[in-house]
Design a protein that fits this description.
Layout: E1 12-16, H1 31-43, E2 48-51, H2 63-80, E3 86-91, H3 96-109, E4 113-116, H4 129-142, E5 147-151, H5 163-172, E6 176-181, H6 186-195, E7 200-203, H7 209-214, E8 219-221, H8 229-240, H9 244-277, H10 292-311
Length: 312
């Protein structure tokens, strides 16, 4: 079992890669396209890959498919030839027992970290913060890889873990080494970073990236990296180097495009990859492809961003 103290703080941009599907009735996982896409993100400078996140449609995949996707991601990172790149896998469950099983399955398939949502099916019966704290502490004790808390109220029955709860979990469970803030709360990011200076604190998007990084976030896990990984590296470097005006200008342009990714979900990400890179496809049913009017708006918004991407 890996002790959390041995895990380094993660810095930089991590891409929650999409899961691609064959254009068939069964929509089987397209592993070749997934591997190609991971290489594209890594070639764009991404410090690591998140597989089976919300953008990766984990909840639409069987357990066997999830394990196979992690194995493909591991293969892609290993074949890229830069061992410093990191593989994080979305895992977990609505019971502590299932979460332990799924996290350790991800570890066996080659993940180095597990990104874990809080259980959320019975939120009224967790005893408030106690049940959530117990969940992460018990999971961390049995997990074979470090745990990153995934704070995402939008997909978790509105469960919004406070900075005090997150810090309490980290202090009680050394193997809980960080948090991803898809609560998009910069004030909470500031508090968690201040209270946990040796932990990884990641923004859950990059349309407010320079705000999050300026208050202590160590990086971001952002779906925009699927489309423009080099641009995200540029933004992170500008902020880190103290080039405030340039960073703000680029941040403003990105915020406009990224808002459309958020509104359009997985389908929007896949459409833009199809438009700019020639592959992508559609989400797993019953999710629908992007409407034509939305495609037009998204393409117009991202044209200028992709010109910057291609210049880098």
């Amino acid at each position: 079992m890996m002790n959390g103290h041995s895990a380094e703080v993660l810095h930089g941009i991590y891409v929650p890669v999409l899961t691609f599907f064959e254009d068939t009735k069964e929509q089987n996982v397209d592993h070749a396209t997934l591997e190609k896409h991971i290489h594209m993100c890594l070639a764009g400078g991404s410090q690591g890959i998140v597989i089976l996140g919300s953008t990766g449609e984990r909840v639409c995949l069987s357990e066997e498919e999830q394990d196979s996707v992690v194995r493909t991601a591991r293969k892609a990172l290993d074949s890229f030839g830069q061992p410093d790149r990191v593989l994080i896998a979305g895992a977990g469950g609505h019971s502590t027992t299932d979460a332990i099983k799924r996290v350790n399955a991800a570890a066996a398939a080659g993940a180095q970290y597990a990104l874990v949502l809080p259980p959320s099916y019975y939120p009224a019966f967790y005893g408030g913060d106690k049940g959530l704290r117990d969940f992460y502490v018990d999971l961390a004790a049995e997990a074979k890889i470090p745990i990153i808390i995934y704070s995402y109220p939008g997909v978790c029955s509105g469960i919004d873990m406070s900075s005090n709860l997150i810090s309490s979990i980290m202090k009680a469970a050394p193997n809980v080494v960080g948090v991803k803030h898809t609560d998009h709360n910069v004030g909470k990011i500031a508090r968690v970073a201040a209270q946990n200076p040796t932990k990884t604190v990641l923004a859950g998007a990059s349309d407010y990236g320079i705000g999050a990084w300026s208050v202590g976030a160590t990086g971001a896990i952002t779906g925009a990296g699927n489309v423009a990984p080099k641009l995200l590296q540029r933004l992170f470097k500008l902020q880190r180097d103290g080039k405030a005006q340039e960073a703000q200008e680029l941040q403003g342009k990105l915020a406009v495009g990224e808002a459309l990714l958020g509104a359009g979900g997985v389908a929007a990400h896949k459409y833009l990859i199809e438009a700019f890179y020639g592959y992508g496809g559609v989400p797993r049913r019953p999710q629908q492809p992007s409407p034509d009017a939305f495609k037009k708006e998204a393409l117009e918004a991202w044209q200028s961003l992709m010109e910057i991407e291609k210049s880098l």
